[in-house]
Amino acid sequence: MAAWKVAASLLRRRSSALSVPIVDIGGARIRADVRTPLGLSLYRYGFCSPESRLLPKLLRPGDVFVDGGANIGLFSFIAAVAVGPTGQVLACEPGPETMAMLRANAAENEFGTLVLREVALSDRPGRTRFTIFEPGSGLASFAPGIDGGRQIDVAVTTLDALSEDLPVRVAVVKLDIEGAEAKALRGATALIARQRPILLIEIEPDHLARQGSSIGDIRDTLTPFGYDAYAITADARLTKLDADWLPPDARAPNVVLAPASRSARLAAATANPAHDQRA
């Protein structure tokens, strides 16, 4: 990172007029509020995580992508670029203040295929209590692991309900919902049975445990449908995980879960160079 970026970010933090610069993320425009930890990081470093570099390899023009826990839209916008004007992105974010940031970011772009839904994902529709923290922090949860925050009522839906009327097959679902991933998958069995989407999912055993579930629950839901688990390497490739599906590095909890029927997609991101070709 250039020293001038650090200096510029410090100056921007002191001025409300300059505190929300626009940064480019994978071809999308994002409002990076440097007064927040996430915005400051985006302004200084950009967004180039292995997951963000992997996602375009898994998507094709015309695909449908579902973003569970969209936050301010980073993965949604990368996906919108990848699927193009003939695809669709459903971005789900239950926190109203974070959704406001997501809407502001959406307004900076011209993604006619982006649909925003102010909902949480779980195993049944309705409404429930939800704890929110600083907008954009990514800490909001049904059962947060830290103290503080503010409880609100939020709308809840299932992936089955969200996808039942879509005219195009769902290609990829991203779930980063602070431990509710197993619940969301239980609410997606019809989608999984019909369409076998690739899942980009956070597996944090402690987060899952706070909501009464485990990696075993995720595995038990998906293995009947032929899913395997893959770790994401630092260079944005995939390597198959052992039968326990536990991410090898607790600091990198995101994994890809996919059935053999999606092998052509996975071949674009395999850790084996012999398969490193677009199919």
Describe what this molecule looks like in 3D.
With 279 residues, this protein is an alpha/beta fold. The protein folds into two domains: 1-47, no CATH class; 49-275, Vaccinia Virus protein VP39 (Rossmann fold, 3-Layer(aba) Sandwich), CATH 3.40.50. It contains eleven helices and 13 strands. The protein has helices at residues 3-13, 37-45, 50-58, 74-83, 96-107, 159-163, 181-186, 189-195, 205-210, 215-222, 263-267, and strands at residues 22-25, 28-31, 64-68, 88-92, 114-117, 120-121, 126-132, 150-157, 170-175, 198-202, 227-232, 238-240, 254-259. The protein has an eight-stranded mixed β-sheet with strand order 5-4-3-9-10-13-11-12, covered by helices on one side.
Question: In brief, what are we looking at here?
Answer:
The protein is α/β, with parallel strands linked by helices. 32% of the residues lie in helices and 23% in strands.
Provide the low-confidence segments as ranges: 273-279
How many domain units?
Answer: 2
CATH architecture of the largest domain, by name, is 3-Layer(aba) Sandwich
The count of helical stretches stands at: 11
CATH class of the largest domain: Alpha Beta
Mean pLDDT: 91
User: What is the assigned CATH homologous superfamily of the largest domain?
Assistant: Vaccinia Virus protein VP39
Helix content: 25-40%
Extended strand count: 13
For the report, how would you describe the main beta sheet? 8 strands, mixed
What is the rounded distance between the termini?
Answer: 35 Å
Strand order of the largest sheet: 5-4-3-9-10-13-11-12
SS class:
alpha/beta
Radius of gyration: 18 Å
Strand-residue proportion: 15-25%
The geometry reads as globular
